[in-house]
Amino acid sequence: MPKSLPAILVVGGAGYIGSHVCKELHKNGYTPVCYDNLIYGHEWAVKWGPFETGDISDRNRLNQVFAAYRIEGVIHLAAFAYVGESVLDPAKYYANNVAGTISLLDAMRKNSVNRIVFSSTCAVYGIPAAVPITEKEPLNPVNPYGASKMMVERILRDYHHAYGLGYIALRYFNAAGADPDGDIGEVHNPETHLIPLALDAALGRRNELVVFGNGYPTPDRTCIRDYIHVTDLARAHVLSLKLLDKNELPGLSVNLGTGKGNSIFEIIRAGEEVTGRKIRHRIAPPRAGDPPVLIADPSQALKMLNWKAQYTDIRQILQHAWNFHRKTDTIA
Ligand SMILES: NC(=O)c1ccc[n+]([C@@H]2O[C@H](COP(=O)([O-])OP(=O)(O)OC[C@H]3O[C@@H](n4cnc5c(N)ncnc54)[C@H](O)[C@@H]3O)[C@@H](O)[C@H]2O)c1
Predict the structure, then answer these.
(1) Gap from CA of 217 to ligand 1 centroid (Å)
(2) 160: helix, coil or strand?
(3) Domains, in order of start, for the chain
(4) Residue 164, Cβ neighbours under 10 Å: how many?
(5) CA 188 to CA 190: how far, in whole Å?
(6) CA distance 71 to 80
(7) Best substitution site from 24, 36, 104, 170 to test ligand 1's pocket, by max atoms within 8 Å of Cβ?
(8) Ligand 1, residues 40, 65, 179, 191: which to mutate, most atoms within 8 A of Cβ?
(9) Atom 7 of ligand 1 has which residue's CA nearest to it?
C-alpha cells in the first residue's frame, strides 16, 4: 500500500470487535491497517486492509509501522479482557493494558499522531449506585481489568491536557452479535461471554450453560446486562474519528449501550427461540463482584457522536450471532 494513502491504525484489529471496526472503516472509505500480535486475534478476520504483526509493547515495531503508512489516527482495542484472570494475575493485566498503552501513546507522539479512540468498558464503574449508568457515575472498578481501563482513561486525560492528544474513550457495555453479512463474528478462546456459551450449549458443543447466581434483586433473579450489537459498536468508532477530525481535539468518555437490559434467563429463552434448540443450563453460585444490573444511559453518545444503537431487539442480535457461530467449528 502506498504511504501517501491516509490510513487508520487499528490496534487489536484481528480480534472480535476490532475486525468489525475494520469492516466499518473500509465501508466508510478509510483504510484500516490492522496491528495485532495474534495472541487472541485471528488472521482470517483481517480482510479490509493490510495486516502488520506486532505487540504494543514493541516500540521499534510500532515506529516501523508508523513510518510505513500515513497514519492519521489510532483505534486502540488491544488488551487482555478476562476479569477472573485479572484478579489472579493483575501484573499481566497492568503490563499489557496499561504499560502497553503507554508504549503505543509514546509511539504516537514520536510520529506526530494525535488522535485516538480507546476501547474502555462499563467495568470502570464497578457496582454502580444508579442505573441506567451515566458517565457522571463515579469510577470504582472492582477488579484489575476494570482498573487497568480506568488508568488508561486517566492517562489519556493527562496526555490531552499536557500534549493536546485528542481522545474518545468508548465505554462498551456487553458486546454481542456478529456481522449481519456473516463475514466475521465472535471467537474467543477461552470463551467467557454468555451468548456464544449459550449457543455452544444449543449446538451440543458443551453439555450445559452455567448460570452464576439466581438470587439477584431482579425480576427473574438473574443478572441483567445491556447487550450492544458489535456493528453498532463499530459504527461508533467511525463517528468518533469524524469528531476527532474536527479542529478542536476533544477528550471524552462515552457510554455505548442500548439503554435496555436483558436477564440471563431472557437470553436463554431468546436463544432457544432463534436456534430452535434447547439450551440446557445449571445454576452455580454467584461470582464475586458481579453487579445485578448494568445498563447504559447512552444519551451522551447521541449528543456528542450522533450515535444510537440500531439493533435493539435481542432476538436479532442472537440471530446474527447464531448465523456466524454455527459455522465456527470449520473456521476457527
Ligand atoms: N467484548 C466485550 O464485550 C468488551 C466489552 C468492553 C470492553 N471491551 C474491550 O474491547 C477490546 C476488544 O475486545 P474483544 O472482545 O474484541 O477482544 P479480543 O481479544 O477479541 O481482541 C483483542 C485483540 O487485541 C490483541 N492484543 C492483545 N494484546 C495485544 C498486544 N500486547 N499487542 C498487540 N495486540 C494485542 C489480541 O490478539 C486480539 O486480537 C478490549 O480492549 C476489551 O477490553 C470488550
Answers:
(1) 31
(2) helix
(3) 6-176+227-256 (3.40.50.720), 194-226+259-331 (3.90.25.10)
(4) 10
(5) 6
(6) 24
(7) 36
(8) 40
(9) 121
Q: Whose CA is nearest to atom 21 of ligand 1?
A: 15
Helix pair angle (314-325, 194-203), 10° resolution:
60
* Residue 219 Cα to ligand 1 middle (Å): 32
Residue bearing cell 458489535: 230
The binding-site residues of ligand 1, defined as CB within 6 angstroms of any ligand atom, are: 12, 14-18, 36-41, 55-57, 77-79, 81, 96, 100, 119, 121, 172, 174-175, 188
The residues annotated as belonging to the active site are 145
Report the separation in Å between the CA atom of 36 and the middle of ligand 1, taken as the mean of its atom positions.
10
* Residues 6 or more apart in contact with residue 136 via CB below 8 angstroms: none
pLDDT at position 2 is 60
* Closest residue to atom 34 of ligand 1, CA basis: 36
Distance from C-alpha of 317 to C-alpha of 332, rounded to nearest angstrom: 21
Q: How far is ligand 1, taken at its centre, from the CA of residue 86, in Å?
A: 14
For residue 203, the one-letter residue type is L
What number of residues does the chain have? 332
Q: What is the pTM for the complete model shown?
A: 0.97
The Cα 35–Cα 111 span in angstroms is 16
Residue 274: predicted pLDDT: 98
pLDDT per residue of the chain (332 residues) written in tens, 0 to 9:
666 568 999 999 999 999 999 999 999 999 999 999 999 999 999 999 999 999 999 999 999 999 999 999 999 999 999 999 999 999 999 999 999 999 999 999 999 999 999 999 999 999 999 999 999 999 999 999 999 999 999 999 999 999 999 999 999 999 999 999 999 999 999 999 999 999 999 999 999 999 999 999 999 999 999 999 999 999 999 999 999 988 678 899 999 999 999 999 999 999 999 999 999 999 999 998 899 999 999 999 999 999 999 999 999 999 999 999 999 876 55
Rounded to whole angstroms, the Cα distance separating 37 from 98 reads 16
